[in-house]
Specification:
Number of domains: 2
Cofactor: Zn(2+)
Family: Belongs to the SprT family.
GO molecular function: metallopeptidase activity; zinc ion binding
Number of helices: 5
CATH topology of the largest domain: Zincin-like
GO biological process, one term: response to stress
CATH class of the largest domain: Alpha Beta
Order of helices and strands: HEEEHHHEEHE
CATH superfamily of the largest domain: Metalloproteases ("zincins"), catalytic domain
Structural class: alpha+beta
Number of strands: 6
Protein name: Protein SprT
Helix content: 25-40%
Mean pLDDT: 95
Length: about 160
C-alpha cells in the first residue's frame, strides 16, 4: 500500500474529526479495484477500495480529490446513517465544508479499456446478432439456454467471435 495514500486517508479523517468534534472509526484501505471506477466506499464494511492504475496515472489529483470523495462517503454514513443519498447534501457538505473541495461525482481520468472477446449467437430473425460475454458463453456450454425475444427460438453460437 503506497504510504501517500494511507497518509491522505488519515489526513481526511483528522480534518473531519476536527470539523465535527468527534472521532471516526478508521477504514480498511485496499488497492484492489479494477475497471472504470477510481474508488469505492463500502459503507457497512468500513472499507475503501481504490484503483491502483488510476492512482499511478493521476497521483496528485487522485490523492487530493478521489481519496477525499471516498472518505466523505464513510464519514457521511457514520454521521447520518443509511437513509441519505450517496452524493446528497450531507456528502456535499463534507466535501465543501470539511475538505474545501468541489463535490464532483465522477472522475475524468483517462481509462484504458481492456480488449474483450464477444461470442456471436444467432436466431432465424434477419440481422440477428447477439454478442455474448465469455461468462455467458460459458453458461450456454454448461446447458443454459437463451431465447430471441422476437421469434422465441433458442439462440445458437455461430462459431464467430469478435474482439472489442
Amino acid at each position: 500500500m503506497p504510504e501517500q495514500l494511507n497518509t491522505r486517508v488519515e489526513d481526511c479523517y483528522q480534518l473531519a474529526e476536527s470539523f465535527f468534534k468527534r472521532s471516526f472509526k478508521r477504514p480498511v484501505v485496499s488497492l484492489k479495484l479494477r475497471g472504470q471506477k477510481a474508488g469505492v466506499a463500502h459503507l457497512h464494511e468500513n472499507l475503501l477500495r481504490f484503483n491502483p492504475q488510476l492512482y499511478r496515472e493521476n497521483t496528485e489529483h487522485f490523492l487530493k480529490q478521489t481519496v477525499a470523495h471516498e472518505v466523505a462517503h464513510l464519514i457521511a454514513h457514520q454521521l447520518f446513517g443509511d437513509r441519505i443519498q450517496p452524493h446528497g447534501e450531507e456528502w456535499q457538505l463534507i466535501m465543501r465544508g470539511v475538505y474545501e473541495l468541489p463535490p464532483d461525482r465522477c472522475h475524468t481520468y483517462e481509462i484504458q479499456r481492456r480488449r474483450v472477446t464477444r461470442y456471436i449467437y444467432k436466431c432465424p430473425c434477419p440481422d440477428s446478432d447477439f454478442a455474448f460475454s465469455a461468462q455467458r458463453h460459458s453458461l450456454v456450454r454448461q446447458g443454459r439456454r437463451y431465447f430471441c425475444r422476437r421469434c422465441r427460438t433458442t439462440l445458437v453460437f455461430s462459431g464467430e467471435m469478435r474482439v472489442e
